[in-house]
Structure formats: C-alpha cells, structure tokens
Design brief:
Layout lengths: L3 H6 L12 E10 L9 E10 L5 E5 L8 H12 L8 E5 L4 H6 L23 H13 L5 E6 L5 E3 L2 E5 L4 H14 L3 E5 L8 H7 L3 E6 L8 H17 L18 E4 L6 E3 L4 E5 L6 E2 L4 E6 L9 E4 L4 E7 L3 E2 L4 E8 L4
Parallel strand pairs: 3-4, 3-5, 5-9, 7-8, 8-10
Antiparallel strand pairs: 1-2, 2-4, 6-16, 7-9, 10-18, 11-18, 12-14, 12-17, 13-16, 14-15, 16-18
Helix pairs in contact: 2-7, 5-7
The chain binds zinc ion (ZN).
C-alpha cells in the first residue's frame, strides 16, 4: 500500500486509484512553474492495469531519454494489456524522465540531472528529485517486482542483456536470476556499476522488490532486436509470475538459453587514458583476451602524435562498446563481462 503520509508530502498530483480494478491511463503531474505558465505541470505518462488478486509489478522505461526500447515496449504493453485477463497489478511508466525522452537525451533538460542517480529523491528538490521521491515513496512500496528497461544510450552499445546487482542474500540472488531467465535476454549480467546507489534498481531493492534492469541497445537509435527482446521479456515476466496465461518463451537465436555473466573485476572497465577519437576494434558480445588490442585513440588535430593503442586487461566478452567517436580522458571505452561463476 502507498505510504499516504509520505505521498501527502509529494508535490506531484494525479487522478489514479492504485487499488481500483480495470485499466487507468493517465499522468503524474509534476508542478513546473515557468514564464508564461505559473501553474504549469510536466505530465509523466502512467498506466495502472489492475486485474484483481495477484502480484504487483512495476515496468519502467525512459529513465534515460536516449534509450528507446523500453519506451516503445512499455507503452505498447500498456495499450494492449487487458485487465480481464490479468491476475494482479501492472504499473507502467514508459517514459519516466519525459523531458529527457522528448529531447532524446540522457540528462534531464529541466534540471540537468541523471534521473537514475536521483533515487530516493527529495519532495522539495528539483524536477527529477521530486519525481524520484514520488516513485520511491508511493509506487515502489506497492510492488513485488520491478523491471527497469534501459539501453546504452548515445555513447555506448550493449550486448543485449538483463542486469542485476550483487546482493547479500543468496536466496534473493537466486530468485532474481530466475526472474532474469524468464525475461530471457541473450545475456544476464550481474554487476555493481559506478555510482549505483541512486538508481531505480537500487531503490527497488531497498523496498524489497525483486529487481532486474536491462541493456537492450544503444548508439542513440532504436535497436530492432532490443525492442523484440524487451516486448517478449515483459510478457515473459508476467507469464512466469502467473499473471497472464502462457509459458515464457525463453528460446535464443543460437538455440541455447540466457547466458549468465558477471562484471566483478575493476579491470573489466577500460578507460580512455586521454581525450581523443576512439577507434574500437570489436563489437558487443565478441570474445576478447587480455593483452589483445581494444582499439586506438587518434589525435586527429596533431600529426606529431601517433594513434595510442589501448589493450584489454582481462579475458571475456564485450558487454559495452563505445560508439560516439570522441571520448574524454576517464570515459569508459569498453566493459568486459565474463562467464558467471555461479550465484
Ligand atoms: Zn539507462
């Protein structure tokens, strides 16, 4: 149940009744006073589809505006899901950071923040903080499962994967892994990223929800395969939880199953040692070895400087590959995942 005391402190208002049966499509209204619009609001799309008794899940997309697969899959699911054939409740936020989604950007153009660093938010804070506070205090306490669909945005491309965090409880690890197997992306990557505490996934975990996220494309475009994996994955989760009829389709193009991977070692992250134009020599999913050439950093403005070679530091498969051309010193130019040693 929502924490009404906390909800009452939120500045967001809406006309939804989270306990009412049926389908409600509407908006969370975030006050955003501006020149020419004293009482203006930013309307964040939300769907609550309630089929009565059963589990409650949250599907989110567009936490980063330049990641499109979850926006498409989430909005389509909201349109097609029939409460008559649903057991339990699905809450869908297909474009969480709507201003960023409309701008095709990672960062919110209103307050300049990365929404996925703003949880658990602040009711008196900036746009993203106010929205994060509402999701953390009103929505996450209602759900048992959270699936937050991401891609690698404008700067990277990911091998199509679900992701999950290392958590202390082995039972939670197992159940989360089973959830990822149901979603059935080609890879499932266990990791703990840079500055992960403010993410949607970390917040959902703090509320005790089983949580997976995903990386289903990148390079700032819509991945054909990523949308397919996202749509099937959301359906699969509902089927796996018995919320809609049918068995999850977990098949993969290579005839196998989801491959369990992990990013445990700091050497998995390869950083640019200097500003430059990075030329990668690999593709997402490709197998690579320690010492093998990862790419070259070009200094196109200076004939006197030869391209700088960058080599991989560990064996594994490429999880994240860069694609934006120009990089800055300290930017990640590859993330390596390795076969999981088991959880
Ligand atoms: Zn993202």
């Amino acid at each position: 149940m929502p924490d009404t005391a906390t909800a009452a402190r939120s500045r967001i208002f809406h006309e939804l009744d989270f306990d009412k049966p049926g389908k409600q499509i509407g908006y969370l209204r975030v006050p955003q006073s501006r020149d020419g619009g004293a009482w203006s609001t930013i309307e964040i799309p939300i769907a609550v589809i309630n089929g009565g008794k059963g589990p409650a899940v949250l599907f989110t997309g567009g936490v980063h505006g330049d990641e499109y697969e979850g926006q498409i899959a989430g909005a389509r699911l909201a349109r097609r899901l029939d409460p008559q054939s649903l057991r339990g409740k699905v809450i869908l936020l297909p474009a969480v950071d709507l201003p960023a989604a409309l701008a095709g950007r990672r960062m919110c153009p209103i307050d300049g923040r990365d929404f996925n660093r703003c949880m658990p938010g602040d009711a008196r804070g900036s746009f993203c903080q106010v929205l994060a506070h509402f999701i953390d205090s009103v929505i996450l306490p209602q759900v048992e499962v959270c699936v937050d669909v991401h891609a690698a945005g404008n700067s990277m491309e990911a091998a199509l994967s679900t992701t999950m965090h290392w958590v202390d409880d082995p039972k939670v690890m197992q159940r989360t892994r089973a959830l990822a197997e149901n979603f059935a992306a080609p890879y499932n990557v266990v990791f703990w990223g840079v500055d992960e505490g403010g993410t949607m996934a970390a917040a959902a975990e703090r509320h005790g929800a089983l949580t997976i996220s995903s990386e289903l494309g990148g390079y700032g475009r819509v991945s054909v395969d990523g949308v397919r994996v996202a749509e099937r994955g959301l359906d699969n989760v509902l089927k796996g939880m018995g919320m809609i009829d049918g068995k999850p389709d977990t098949s993969q193009p290579d005839g196998g199953r989801t491959r369990h991977m992990e990013v445990r070692d700091q050497k998995s992250y390869l950083f640019a040692p200097s500003d430059g134009l990075f030329e990668p020599l690999y593709l997402p999913g490709q197998r690579v070895s320690a010492g093998e050439r990862a790419g070259y950093l070009h200094f196109i403005e200076d004939w006197a400087r030869d391209p700088m070679p960058i080599d991989f530091r560990i064996d594994g498969h490429i999880w994240m590959a860069p694609g934006s051309g120009r990089v800055r010193k300290g930017d990640v130019v590859a993330v390596i995942m390795r076969e999981s040693e088991g959880v």
